[in-house]
Specification:
The chain is α/β, with parallel strands linked by helices. It contains eleven helices and 20 strands. It is globular and about 60 Å long. The protein starts with 5 loop residues before the first strand and ends with a helix.
Length: about 375
């Protein structure tokens, strides 16, 4: 059996790790983060919110159940690189149609294993998420560290525009018609007709809306407030997405032009853009929330929801004072904002991902609440 290429991961603070590349040779660069979920690696890999990031999985064995066509969250692998403790050489699951290493190799994404992911995760928790470079071609730690330091990072960069669709499309279990044909077919649906602002939308958000009888039209992030209002949609969903929300200035301006004019439901980046549109501010978390075990308290009911999360930024709670928005959910690990609402403007949002449902039904009520907000509940 041919030996796997040696790989070096260098972080911007000079910490290095040595492993092996199980998808062939090459290089990867981006912000190094970790995800604490035990399963769901295919969803992580294809989630547009991970654009520009090298993801470390904390669960020690990854790839054992393979990959399949049903668990995509977008049309492609989105991560910049992938790090695991051990990549399983064997896949065993009745749904599997391919292996993890074949999947990533075909996508041209560098993935490495034989890394002490516990030590890497602990380092990131203590020092914070940071820029990094993985290479099988340049194994000099000092040169790689210098390259990591020179990377631009995520602050101030509009990554949402990189993962958004280029023209509207209708969702019918998968992307269907595009452009004017999509709008025309969507208008014929008796409703509720929902427009989704695509800043990196996960397919399962669209599936959850469709399951509730919604006609779903996905719009590019370049859509203006006038474009959205001209559709006469029953409601608007602001999607998840990658990177710094303060850099997505065009979408924030669009949202400001839509406040109070139709029901709005924001998810993850969607909440951050709502917070900015309302006059709040956002900030970067030390190492972010990424995993399927984040406890969130619903302040209205007192119930605790176990949630799936993937974000490195948050809306600062104190910045919402005087905006008319109220805090509806908080994270029990660090007391950061997990939900906001404003009845006067007919909007609400959450920072976590109700479509992922690790509970598995803890947060599914939010889609029903959105139907009620549209008068369709």
């Amino acid at each position: 059996m041919k030996a796997l290429p040696k790989a070096v991961l260098a972080l911007e603070d000079g910490r290095t790790f040595t492993g092996r590349a199980f998808t062939g040779g090459g290089e990867a660069e981006g912000e190094v983060v970790f995800n604490t979920a035990m399963t769901g690696y295919q969803e992580v890999l294809t989630d547009p919110s991970y654009r520009g990031q090298i993801v470390t999985m904390t669960y020690p064995l990854v790839g054992n159940y393979g990959v399949n066509p049903e668990d995509f969250e977008s049309a492609r692998v989105q991560v910049a690189g992938f790090i695991v403790r051990e990549a399983s050489a064997v896949r065993s699951n009745w749904r599997a149609t391919g292996s993890l290493n074949e999947f990533l190799t075909a996508a041209g994404v560098l993935a490495i294993d034989d890394i002490d992911t516990r030590a890497l995760t602990r380092h990131i928790r203590l020092a914070g998420a940071m820029k990094g470079v993985i290479s099988t071609t340049d194994l000099d730690p000092e040169r790689l560290t210098q390259r990591a330091r020179a990377l631009p990072g995520l602050l101030g960069i509009d990554l949402a525009s990189q993962v958004s669709c280029s023209e509207p499309y209708r969702w019918q279990g998968k992307p269907a018609e595009t452009g004017a044909a999509a709008v025309s077919a969507w208008r014929k649906h008796p409703g509720p007709r929902v427009a989704v602002m695509d800043c990196g939308v996960k397919y399962n958000i669209l599936r959850c809306l469709e399951e509730r009888g919604c006609a779903v039209l996905v719009l590019p992030a370049t859509a203006s407030a006038a474009d959205v209002l001209a559709l006469k949609a029953d409601g608007l969903v602001l999607s998840n997405g990658p990177g710094d929300p303060a850099a997505v200035k065009g979408v924030v301006a669009t949202v400001q032009g839509l406040l109070g004019k139709l029901p709005i439901f924001g998810i993850c980046l969607g909440q951050q853009m709502l917070g900015l549109a309302l006059g709040g501010r956002t900030s970067k978390l030390k190492f972010g929330h990424r995993g399927a075990n984040q406890p969130v308290k619903n302040l209205a009911t007192g119930r605790i929801e176990i949630t799936s999360q993937n974000h490195g930024f948050t809306v600062d709670i104190d910045s919402l004072a005087g905006t008319g928005a109220e805090v509806t959910h908080v994270n029990l690990n660090d007391n950061t904002l997990e939900g906001l609402g404003c009845k006067r403007l007919k909007l609400f949002s959450v920072q976590y991902h109700p479509e992922a449902s690790p509970g598995p039904h803890d947060a599914s009520y939010l889609f029903d609440d959105f139907l009620g907000l549209m008068g369709r509940g």
